[in-house]
Write a structure and sequence with these properties.
eight-stranded mixed beta sheet, 4 helices, Dihydrofolate Reductase, subunit A, 8 strands, alpha/beta
Length: 198
């Protein structure tokens, strides 16, 4: 049976809804439990992944890292130009639909880790390509930083799949993303009249 590629966005978020710290770093890096490439369930997550997909803002800092963050993964970048020092096998395109086709053309059945900010995630959600949104809620309040919305459209439909506690007090929540959100009710469901349904 052929395995279908899934595009899985995974990002950390503070309890008060910020995906970056006030200084712009990913939320999980502020957690005292953070160990690069090890903590917050990333090892288990990457087991089924064969590719990493991200925007240029996420990609560029990796070029100055002591270690390549995506060993053994095909790397795709949403961007028109890549900086000097980019490995020759990194694929880039400024058009999300074209980049998606290139990912599909080379895929061998493994999943794609969609890394990066809400705008990049939303670009692939709009194409209907986002399969899961996986949030790691870190036990911290930031008070400022980049929020998940509105760059990731509030119209995104989410269906709960699973949750699990992680060492250090974080919680992983996984949602499938295959529809638009239903219209929000004008008042709490508990205030709906049992006689009229309104």
């Amino acid at each position: 049976m052929e395995t279908r590629m899934r595009i899985r966005a995974r990002l950390a978020i503070s309890v008060d809804g910020f995906v970056t710290t006030p200084t712009g770093w990913p939320a999980h890096t502020a957690d005292p439990a953070f160990v690069s490439g090890e903590s917050h369930g990333i090892r288990e997550f990457l087991v089924g992944c064969e590719a990493a997909l991200m925007g240029r803002t996420t990609f560029e800092p990796a070029l100055s890292n002591d270690r390549w963050p995506w060993p053994g993964l095909d790397v795709f970048v949403l961007g028109s130009q890549l900086p000097p020092g980019t490995p020759s096998d990194v694929v880039a395109d400024s058009d999300p639909a074209r980049l998606l086709e290139r990912i599909r053309a080379t895929n061998r059945g493994g999943d794609v880790h969609l890394i990066g900010g809400p705008r990049t995630i939303n670009a692939f959600r709009v194409l209907g390509a986002l399969d899961t949104l996986e949030l790691v809620v870190v036990p911290l309040l930031f008070g400022a930083g980049l929020r998940l919305t509105p760059a990731l459209s509030p119209d995104a439909g989410l269906t709960f799949e699973s949750t699990r506690p992680l060492p250090g007090g974080s919680v992983e929540i996984v949602y499938s993303c295959h529809a638009d959100r239903a219209t929000l009710p004008p008042r709490p469901a508990s205030q709906t009249s049992p006689m009229t349904g309104a």
